[in-house]
User: Fold these one by one.
Assistant:
Number 1:
Amino acid sequence: MLTKPERSDTVDLSDNALQVDISDALSERDKVKFTVHTKTNIREFKKQEFSVIRQHEEFVWLHDRYEENDEYAGYIIPPAPPRPDFESSREKLQKLGEGEGSMSADEFKKMKQELEAEYLATFKKTVAVHEMFLQRLVSHPVFKNDHNLHVFLEYEQDLSVRGKNRKEKIEDFWKSFTKSTDEILLSTTQKDTDDFFEKEKHFLVAFHEHLKDATYKADKMTRAHKDVADSMLKVASQLAQLSAMDVSPLEECFQKLIDYLEKSRKLESRVSSDEDLKLSDSFRYYVHETAAAKDLLYRRMRALADYEAANKALDKSRIKHKDIQAAEYAQQKACENFQVISDKARDDLRSLKSRRIITMKKSLVDMCDLEIKHAQGHITLLKSSLSLLQEE
Amino acid sequence: MSETVEDSSGQPFSRVESDEDIFKETKEDLTSSLFKSAMSNPADKEIDLNDDESPSVSQPIAPTTAGGQEPLNQAGSEGYIKISVAEPKKVGDGMSSYLVYRVVTRTNIRFFSKQEMVVTRRFSDFLGLHTKLMEKYLHKGRIVPPAPDKNLVGTTKLVISQQVTGEANTADFVEKRRWALERYLNRTASHPILQADPDFREFLELESELPRATNTSAISGAGVLRLFNRVGETVNKMTFKMEEADSWFEEKTQQIEALDAQLRRLQSSTEALALQRKELAQTTSTFAKSAALLSTCEEHENFAKALVQLSELEEKIQGIHMEQVHADFFLLCEFLKDYIGLIGAVKDTFHERVKAYQTWQHAQGMLVKKRESAEKLDSAGRTERAGSARDDVLEWEVKVERAREEFEAISRTIKQEFDRFELSRIKDFKHAFISYLEALLESQQKLVKQWEDYAIQVKQIE
């Protein structure tokens, strides 16, 4: 069970205050159960403070409800949190169990601790990501009033969001397939007279691709870093065995190297996880954000296409002198819709730009500070290990 | 071809003839014929430790060791000798080309001709030196440091082309070998007996080319010897069980075996560490390239700059990781390989002792036989045959005595060598660990500097 430290209460004097956090989380076999804790003085809620248990699927359900809602078509919908993935940790734990016979008890214990720490880190990350998703929603002036959100936060029973059955999964797949072909079609056939959006489209498409690639490679790098740390453990344990069979003063010498290796391993592990957090995760987050932004652009394009179709329909009906009023009405709606979406989109995209630069810069700065701190720690460790070895 | 070495009295050191005779006649297994050809170098000179005239051994300072022997002091405690092997240069063209290494020796030991000597040697020269030293000293129970392996695959790659098989690999291989040769020479030089050996000295001093060592082509002579020895060994182990009267040997044999096994395991895990770090370096470089690509489509100018700088930073970090890989590999991995080889040499001496024991037992058996046949002839009254039979008996009595002495001598020497080995092991390992940590320290300091520089750059983005 993971317990979060108490959050300091910020007093929001407005009538519209809504604060959300994940106060607890429980990992059970395949599932993670999040305790979503809400504090509010919005009168629509029955209580001022309450908690419910939610699972990952319910978060996805909430995201999908926002996405489907045409009223939100002009906004960037915060990306749904990724599925909690304990697969790799579980695999490693299994491999460890299988290899138990081939390593010393001490080594086994250490590796087990290592894997447990890894599991815990993954766990913390998934909690953070789910929490951030909710906080984006409640801090958005429009999203925070959504009815589905309120249900999600308050409804004490299970939302009965069953996982999609096979038929629905196939439907989903086709939907996304048609959407992306539609997207491609639109981007090639639909002309956009607005420079801003043209540029945005070009930028987002290219940037998203490259960012995805960079994230993938950053992940590989941090994983390799972790592996280096793990192999140090193996060397340390072999040294320990060697030292145990050696009766000479060499034993002390070995011990000092073993100590160094164990400490440096912890350091390298920390470097790896900090890089993961500050670099990979930060990139990854914006991969999702830019994907959401692309979705927004797509919806706008769709609206533009609808608008132009409505125009054509209106012209046609004028020529045929049939249903002119209906056509006019439809065209009016399409025009408004398109305008609204365009305006909102412009704002959201602009704020995404500045948000992104600020957050990414901060992540890089944080990463530098952490790397420096760890490297200096490592230097201190090396110097002290050396002086220990050199004495006598 | 060795020079005649003369002691202060002007007498050349005499060759201990009888030893070799015994070996020639009594060895009936396969190893003997090889030994014969290996031993037939007539100019072989040996220096006996107990010889008063030997100049290189300084006063022993350590108290008597477990073997109750005069401790074999680490050579160089009064004298200084340091050998360095420089990067090889290619000589000749095409298939007949080969590499020569520059060997520079700095010493203040007086029986070397100069204080600084520079010669060029090719790899087969090193192998030839090792073979000669093995021939001369192994059967006495001396631990002769093994020469670097002749890695066939690496050599042919080198000869064919530098470009075809990735520069990095051949450069690695060349560096690996150069370093191994350097360690080999220094280790041999630190042994007081071997250091004074005329062949060794000639190797370091003779400015002209050494005659091509003939038995080093595909597999080195020592390698062939070892190969056959191993065959003989396995046969021996199956057919011959030595009654070990000396518990010291029993204990040490087990100790050596355990050490060997554990060192191998350690070596493979250090190799794994080096490989993992190499992987880290590669992934870092890949990431750097992708960060550079990202920067090209970043719309915010200053941030794009930060990304470019990140990419450059990561490339430099990749270089630092590679340096650490070198430390992992050369300072730990190769060092451990050396020791595994040395332990092999120790095991070889133990095996030699078993063979000496066998020789002695065999001689005793022959003596009994000869006595029996002499008695038979005597009682049968065939005085002429009996006479020659009794001559045989005398001859074999001498042989038995010699074999016993040999066996005891080799046992003593091994104990001496072993103690020295233990002492130098402590020093070596400690030194290796220190070098390793120093190398890592240097890398980490570079790493800090890189991050600090980048931090300044990043903080400046608007």
Number 2:
Amino acid sequence: MAAIFQGVGAAAALSSSPSNSFDSKKFVSSPLRKGASFAVVRSDGRVNLNPKGRRAQQLISNAVATKSDSAAASSSSKPGHELLLFEALQEGLEEEMERDLRVCVMGEDVGHYGGSYKVTKGLAKKFGDLRVLDTPIAENSFSGMGIGAAMTGLRPVVEGMNMGFLLLAFNQISNNCGMLHYTSGGQFTIPIVIRGPGGVGRQLGAEHSQRLESYFQSIPGIQMVACSTPYNAKGLMKAAIRSENPVILFEHVLLYNLKERIPDEDYICNLEEAEMVRPGEHVTILTYSRMRYHVMQAAKTLVNKGYDPEVIDIRSLKPFDLYTIGNSVKKTHRVLIVEECMRTGGIGASLIAAITENFNDYLDAPIMCLSSQDVPTPYAGTLEEVTVVQPAQIVTAVEQLCQ
Amino acid sequence: MCLQLTYVVKSGLVGFPLHQLNTKILPTLSATIPTPFPLVFSAPIVSFLSFIFSSPLSLPSSPPIFSPFPSSLPIRKKMATAFSPSKFAAQPFPLNTTSQNNPLTIPTIASPFLGSTRKLIRLCSSSNLNLRRRSGTVVAVSDVVKENKSKSTPNLLITKEEGLELYEDMVLGRAFEDMCAQMYYRGKMFGFVHLYNGQEAVSTGFIKLLKQQDSVVSTYRDHVHALSKGVSARAVMSELFGKTTGCCRGQGGSMHMFSREHNVLGGFAFIGEGIPVATGAAFTSKYKREVLKEVDCDHVTLAFFGDGTCNNGQFFECLNMAALWKLPIVFVVENNLWAIGMSHLRATSDPQIYKKGPAFGMPGVHVDGMDVLKVREVAKEAIGRARRGEGPTLVECETYRFRGHSLADPDELRDPAEKAHYAARDPITALKKYLTENNLTSEADLKAIDKKIDEVVEEAVEFADESPVPPRSQLLENVFADPKGFGIGPDGRYRCEDPKFTEGTAQV
């Protein structure tokens, strides 16, 4: 586990440097006085003035250290505050709800229970039962309700208790969420955020271990992002809420307790951009969500063996950030995709197609893709381990690719 | 309160013994409505269950009860007697679907469906009145309905202006749909086109009571809902022709009529899909009032859908949520007895849809949907309830579509006798009769309206014909509200910044 946090630490350090000469900035370093107002230059060139920095003060004390890690240990001299990923999501959500009264949350057990993964903890007390709405167990209908509310002026955040439950809402997500802006000729916008934890957990069984990114990726009209660190979780949550497009935010069940130090100031992460985790020369490894940590763990081994992998967390599952990816391919000429979704029709498959279409001339070897097995996730721990890509497999793949 | 039992027997159509649902039963049923848990309702549960309206618009010289099915005869004998609630409650609807010598597989418990032409008990001869039996805790009283009026001072339901407005709206709906059919067969529009002929009373009766900020959500049979709400005939016709001047820029089509200006929230192709969207719009209204503190926000949402949808999960889920949170919504069921070729009676265990309202803690009302004035009365109450914040209502309008399910439907399955029966109850003819008989207006006025509407529809067709088709560049324009959603291209710029993109020729 220490390796993972080290990866997080490395990621946090690296993510602060812009990965490309493109004009995007995730945040601007600024005076760290709490309550200072300053500008955040966003990738579209607009400048956002942070209204208040007061919420940063409340949350430092909330950061519960579940796993102590010396590498990423909180030293008070470092800027920002430390918290866990679910708290980062909560912070992002809370800040947006304070900023805009139209932002509301709907989902099962989001209110009084605080969310089954505590992402909405305390929000119902603060904002009331109508803004943090406990819905009955009717995913299709409350997702549709969220869409109707979005069409008529609100900005709902719909939570699927587990991403897999959103299969029940597929009708609304595909037909209405994705399509209504188009079929209405642009008259109605649907600024909804649909989020929830997915991915393979610890022996949760087949139905609770689903990865829906591959099912949703064909729906035209939606954007999909996957968060992997507290930093980008908060950033993506905020960006998704502020976006006028419907956004599906994929979280991962096993990543909720990751701890990281994040800036105090207001920032967002661009929804369409990928994140450079570790620059390198020999091979480009594209990944997202939990697999980022397996990749970083493998990266340690690879570095020891003399390889220099470039690790990119693609973050934006739809649309792909072909600029970051392209630059990387042009540099390393070898691509390995490591993903957690199924092999058939997964994100990796789409990514291979996109890269081959656009950067075929730059490739020295066929793209390799490591995905989960096309198997309903078994309950047994040993089998479950095998369905998901493990660091050892990543190391072998890189060695093979770099021959 | 005078108890007037009026029920009308549907001839020729077998159904659940709704006639048994006489007013004596209502108190019983109201007593059995369970208190919802948890007790979030502070107001007493309204349980006005079934309004059986007399039918002032029915033709006095209606044809005798038409019963092609011998099994309906014994029911007619039963009608005159009192019916026990237990008999009503205990009788499960049989699943018998064996057809004997008729193509319509009608279960053999032959019971007339409510709302036929024959009145069994006449009311006071000022037949303009609607009388209904109320249970103890009725909340709203329609200000127009008065009881025990004497003959000499008939109380009309509508004024002349209202009457003409209703008439014009219904004629517009009818003329427009007839023109759609013509245009379809001439090859000006394609795909699935579902026409509303015969059901105009429901659309006019409800939508003409709304304000501009109220929302309407419909299904694929949405042309007339859009027209009633105020979308211009030109915009709808252009949309059907797929022209860029259509209300949805030609991108939606027949089944996706939207209008931001008039708050028409669609137009949905899958049934049941619109109901959660309507619930969401009602949620927004409540949210605006309570969270955004717009205290005078009393926007109401109407969700229109059919009998087939009432077997869909989204219907029930939304009834639950709307009643739970007392959302300002009215669920209007346009029960035209057929879901393409599936008879409502063959698809539904308990065909009385209005009964499903009280099961969720909201009033369920049944109304004759071929009679615009009755629909309007019920609509006033239901919309009034929603505006006052008392919660949702389920209104079942018994209506009928004169044409097939869509223009592609050969409509062979429905009994011609049934069609003739309902054709005789054409809502436009009935309103015309009402208006002229009560001296609200003259034939000449009505003919003038007919002519005017014809011109409007002709002009709409001309406009649509002359409108341009959408250019290629329109293809990608409305996929995302924020076109950055198309992503960053290999050159580092957002794809939407690429000039070729707006021409629709760029790859995405």
Number 3:
Amino acid sequence: MFRQAPRLLARATSIMRARSFSTDLPAAPTSDSSFVEAWKKVIPNIDAPKTPLSFMQPRPPTPPSIPGKLTVNFVLPYQSELAAKEVDMVIIPATTGQMGVLPGHVATIAELKPGILSVHEGNDVTKYFVSSGFAFIHANSIADVVAVEAVPIDRIDPALVQKGLADFTQKLSTASTDLEKAEAQIGVDVHSALNSALTG
Amino acid sequence: MAMAALRREGRRFLPLMSSNSINAARSSIVSEDLAPQGARAISTQVVRNRMKSVKNIQKITKAMKMVAASKLRAIQVRAENSRGLWQPFTALLGDTPSVDVKKNVIVTISSDKGLCGGINSTSVKVSKSLYKWTSGPDKETKYVILGEKAKAQLVRDSKKDIEISITELQKNPLNYTQVSVLADDILKNVEYDALRIVFNKFHSVVSFMPTLATVLSPEVVEREAEAGGKLGDLDNYEIEGGETKGEILQNLAEFQFSCVLFNAVLENACSEQGARMSAMDSSSRNAGEMLDRLTLTYNRTRQASITTELIEIISGASALEG
């Protein structure tokens, strides 16, 4: 099997040349050396498994002065919508209301509610409707927004939004168990947020 | 020309030399392309059957390799797109595989189908070593198993430690909703201080790395944040929304688990297809080599039987001539 490895690799690289893996591994892979040593002490025969730290680019430290731009990473389960994009401002729909994030914002962990996320870059504003998720703002002016579902606003159909709102309001009034009430309430919340996103 | 004449002579002699019963016996093992009277002593039937079955196996494994390659292409795109999902969590909470906690839960991810090389055995080996590593006085470690293959291997000696086992994960194409329901199920039914997810990370078509991702429960996160070290900066973060910090951390831990599990399941599925591709590739190559060897044996056997028959004819003829 190992004799064939060079041939397989050549075939693999020719098939997969379009997808490069350079974005995955950092230039200098860091690993948790204390973990590896502790592992070797107990289990010397088997190699320690890799940990996520070795697959990630290390984050830059907090700069002494406030940087000019905010770096935004906006990720969804099936796509990285924005990856390390330099922007001026981001407005995120936190549970306490719309929150504007500028470079130099204090480090924050914010839970998101369904609403509009807008990314301001110069004069361009891109708006997404976000279902829910979390946003981490780090001290080094990097903002990570992790959402479950996000669509650009122009892809939302107003007619379906109205219909959904009506459906869920009706379900809420006829709900009997707590679970049904909670599900209907969530539906109402999301659809009314969608409604205000389209109109506002 | 001479050979044909000799063969005709042989046929004239054969009924004289052999009795009927021997002829009948010979006919029963004669091959289709010979006339019943020209039965050859050495039969190539056995070799021929083997060649046919090896050729079929080669075709099947080649087809399986093509199928695995196409499935790999489809799922690789999704796995790569989901790679950004766990990075914010590791950036915020760091990566602490050597955290010391009382209740460990090892989530082992494996495939349902076999013929995929050694990836499932690797996962099980790492899980068992992890069990040994995290065991100690006053500590307990449990398994949650995703996939039929790991269940088969772990049920043999760790049956009492398996909390939940889930199979047929890939019946429908993998998506985040399904995985988040699964994660919810696991979190509801299992008490944990630290969840350790063991899977094979897809590196390239020929290399898969056993990887360990750790998700801590909110209480442990608070404890570690107070103790300082990697999570010490956590207190510097303002908490927006929610009633208490504890509630936010709870939601955060659950969300992190579902995101990390989603990526892990996709990566493992990718690794499974890649491993199956290379296993089937080497299998069809081996079948090809076996077929070459069998062809040589077949030709040798065939030539030997013709030579033997010639010798019999010629010696018979020369015996008659005197």
